[in-house]
Amino acid sequence: MTAQKPISHFINGHENPGTGERTQPVYNPATGEISGHLRLANRDDLDTTVAAAKKAAESWSQTSLAKRTTVLFKFRELVSAHVDELAALITAEHGKVLSDAKGEIGRGIEVIEFACGIPQLLKGAYSDQASTGIDVFSFREPVGVVAGITPFNFPVMVPLWMCPIAIATGNAFILKPSERDPSAAILLATLWTKAGLPDGVFQVLHGDKETVTGLLTHPDVDAISFVGSTPIAQYVHETATAHGKRVQALGGAKNHAIILPDADLDNAADHLSAAAFGSAGERCMAISVAIAVGDAADSLVSKVQERALAIKVAEGTEPDADMGPVITRASKERIIRIVGEAAESGANLVVDGRDLVVTGKEDGFWVGPTVLDNVTTDMTAYTEEIFGPVLTVVRVETVEEAIELINSNPYGNGTAIFTSSGSNARKFQRGVHVGMIGINVPVPVPVAYHSFGGWKNSLFGDRNIYGEEGVAFYTRGKVVTSRWPEPAHASEASYAFPSNS
Ligand code: NAD
């Protein structure tokens, strides 16, 4: 048995168990054992945290850009120095392999680096002599208190998509991490404090629907950044906007990759396999549907089959592991059910990971890589986001049919094409109704100085996350029109609407 640690909130500069009596177990998905007990916030904990954030935001928003940037540079240094420790926490509670955990931290560090450039990003604009004797300038101010509600699948990267930019722009930030893998958030909080961030500017509050709803409706929370599944994203968007808050709510996905017959099929199979089974398929940018066009299909399926069978599934701490377990026993059971339904409805189960056993870890939440061929759009394996190591293959005859299939899907997060034809790639990039597109790149997560966001049911709200869109989301614009009249002209007022001269 592993030791079961208590996991507290981080309120106003310190770890704090709060006054809530409810707790929830946290598991190691590789062993199925309980590794911790998470304190869930009650209303008093929520009010204490929001009050501390509101107070901290008042002074942090007045702190100079030079001082804010010093904290951000230091935070970047500290996160980089604690990659191993953060990755170990991720692997222990999420299950992904250590190299993958380090990869997500790396993508988070990119956003901190972007936020280190905040003085440049907040420079504003100045129009000298816009009208005679009148100057106009615009700049942006923080919104106040921001709450970030994040999913289990990237316990460090997704919080880092949000908090470096929210804090750099002068806000206080409350993180409500996933209750399934909450420990890395507490280490991030201690690193912010070590970096010199004042108490209350970054806090962590654990909880479930009750805490989330409390944040969405709290009068002193000004903006909500949410990342998670589509039904919850929709609930978050509707509830928080109804309470007058600014909201960006990123939802689920069903990412398709088109493979054309002119593609290098070995390269495509390598990348498809990595994009479908990496992190046990629990990435919002995972490829879960391969659209095999024309005579690419038979060869592609046999190449993907070969690769799927070669994947080493093991506890994420093993150095040669390619893939770990899925997040919960319920998730494992759901994935197995969906695969079974597809097989019963006529899909061809080319690789079946349902009965995978990992010796010595029999109680872990294991599902092996699974490949389903000849999937049709009425099967639950196609209509639902499976969020597991399952690649479904749909066969079509033309690139136009493939694009139409993508556009008929209610999600629009990411998509990719494998081809050696520039004209087909261009037809694809212009024709698909999707936010993030890869050309021979299967997981096209944009770099930090662009921005991340899907279309349709993959994003509710009108701002993407991070990049300049993040800066705009966490700030409000001010435009100042100023005149400093010479005493002789001081009373040139008119009852007509002011016009430029
Ligand atoms: P989830 O929606 O279950 O949980 C996300 C957050 O919402 C968690 O903090 C959770 O505590 C909270 N939550 C859960 N149920 C709630 C409820 N009923 N009311 C209020 N809050 C609730 O998502 P998950 O399972 O943790 O993460 C996986 C999902 O997130 C997948 O659908 C995946 O595609 C999506 N995701 C999307 C992106 C993106 O950028 N679009 C990125 C990562 C993950």
Structure description:
With 501 residues, this protein is α/β, with parallel strands linked by helices. The chain folds into two domains: 5-251 and 458-479, Aldehyde Dehydrogenase, Chain A, domain 1, CATH 3.40.605.10; 255-439, Aldehyde Dehydrogenase, Chain A, domain 2 (3-Layer(aba) Sandwich), CATH 3.40.309. 38% of the residues lie in helices and 22% in strands. The protein has helices spanning 43-60, 65-81, 83-94, 98-116, 118-121, 157-168, 183-194, 209-217, 230-242, 265-277, 297-310, 329-344, 380-383, 399-408, 422-431, 467-473, and strands spanning 5-7, 9-11, 14-16, 23-28, 33-39, 125-131, 134-142, 145-149, 172-176, 202-204, 223-227, 246-250, 255-259, 287-293, 348-351, 370-373, 390-396, 411-412, 414-418, 436-439, 455-456, 459-460, 475-483. A seven-stranded mixed β-sheet has the order 15-16-17-14-13-19-20, sandwiched between helices. A hairpin with a 2-residue loop joins strand 2 (9-11) and strand 3 (14-16). The longest helix has 19 residues, at 98-116. It is globular, with a radius of gyration of 25 Å. The mean pLDDT is 97. Nicotinamide-adenine-dinucleotide (NAD) is lined by residues 149-154, 158, 176, 178-179, 208-209, 212, 227-229, 232, 235, 250-253, 284, 385, 387, 413, 454, 458. The site of nicotinamide-adenine-dinucleotide (NAD) has 28 residues, from helix 8 and helix 9.
